[in-house]
Amino acid sequence: MKKHIPEEADVQAEKPFRMNITVQSIRFDADTKLIDFIREKLLKLSQFTDEIHAAEVFLRLEHDGDNRENKVVEVKLAVPGTDLFAKRQDKTFEEATIAAVEALRSQVERAKAKGR
Predict the structure, then answer these.
(1) CA distances from 2 to 5, 24, 26, 81, 110 (A)
(2) Which of 20, 88, 98, 111 could join 54 in a cystine, given CB atoms 3.0 to 4.6 angstroms apart?
């Protein structure tokens, strides 16, 4: 199921920030609470840069026997000049999202430092 969630947040008082967030759950329907959680975490990346234009999120369940860490979150950020990507697997989609966003935060900070 694919859901497109445009979201606005003020990064600076005079400069509105807009990130198009698309969440796609593969072979299941993600509930609104999970999608809102993902959107909230991704919007926090705007604290580090206002150049993120879009985010694509893929949610998947891995079928790997008795392993309970079967929730997979993949995130691709569209940033001018490059795309940033993180994939994390954990016990819950929320935990995997937090880990993926943290990895992306590091990538954003490195890209920003490199561009200076």
Answers:
(1) 10, 4, 9, 26, 30
(2) 20
- Domain membership of residue 103 as a residue range: 2-115
CATH number at residue 98: 3.30.160.100
User: How far apart are the C-alpha atoms of 75 and 54, rounded to whole Å?
Assistant: 10
pLDDT tops 50 at residue 12: no
Contact yes or no for 61/27 (Cβ under 8 A): yes
Q: Would you say 40 and 47 are in contact if contact means Cβ atoms under 8 Å apart? A: no
Q: Find all residues with CB under 8 Å of 54, minimum gap 6, and list them.
A: 19, 20, 21, 22, 77, 78
DSSP run (H or E) holding 101: helix 93-115
Q: What is the mean pLDDT of the chain?
A: 85
Place of tokens 């992306």: 104
Q: Structure pTM? A: 0.81
